[in-house]
Amino acid sequence: MFLGVLFSGGKDSVFACRRAMETDSVVCLITVISENPDSYMFHTPNVRWAHLIAEAIGVPQLLWSTRGEEEAELSDLRDAVAAAKKSYGIEGVVTGAIESVYQAARVQRICRELDLWCYNPLWQIDQVEYLRLLVEEGFEVIVTGVFAYPLDESWVGAKIDDRLIRELESLQKRYGINPSGEGGELETFVLDGPILKKRIEILRASKTYENYRGRLTIEEARLVDK
Questions:
Q1: What is the pTM of this model?
Q2: Cα 49 to Cα 33, 55, 84, 169, 220, distances in angstroms
Q3: Quick check: 12 and 180 in contact, CB under 8 A?
Q4: Residue 138 zone, left/alpha/beta (φ > 0; ψ -120 to 50; rest)
Q5: 3-state secondary structure of 32
Q6: Is 120 within 8 Å of 172 (Cβ atoms)?
Q7: Are 157 and 189 within 8 A, CB to CB?
Q8: CB 164, CB 158: distance < 8 Å
Q9: Which GO terms describe its biological process (predicted)?
Q10: Using one digit for the tens of pLDDT, what is the confidence trace for 68-118?
């Protein structure tokens, strides 16, 4: 089956892409760039750099823009998926949704309207085990945004490793935080992984943080040989 992956450059979309590649043909990556940093539907930190990951994977990327207005952005997503169907002949759409009914239900509705299969390979996965799986399979992931107490400034730019996963597991028990950030607590960006032929090197980045909200903004990056 020919599939298009909703692709932001974050860990969930990249890992979902890997899972889809194991059974089907991923023919395009669909990246929606929102003008609204607090979009309800779309990952926003550093999404403009997702093209480097697409290039490293070796799959064409379809870029689409949206103003990011609630519900109206769904029309933009539908247009993007329709364009992918027309240009690449996709028969289904892959998402990295884990627990977000808001996102999953809306993508499924769009897929029904366009007569496409909706594939959610990470749906209801144990979030801590999922993070461990990312590390075990060789994904290099950094935290590019934090948006919840008690995530302090040290989390911004931190690499997801065994130590960080243990900390997230502890915060899940103490504060109810979703370890994978499914509740909007954190955002990520993938620098390397088993499906990437090259890795991303960040050359320049800036950090902002205030009142448990922080972002790492990539300002210059490139692909380098592994």
A1: 0.94
A2: 10, 10, 20, 29, 9
A3: yes
A4: left
A5: strand
A6: no
A7: no
A8: yes
A9: protein histidyl modification to diphthamide
A10: 676 678 899 999 999 999 999 999 999 999 988 878 899 999 999 999 999
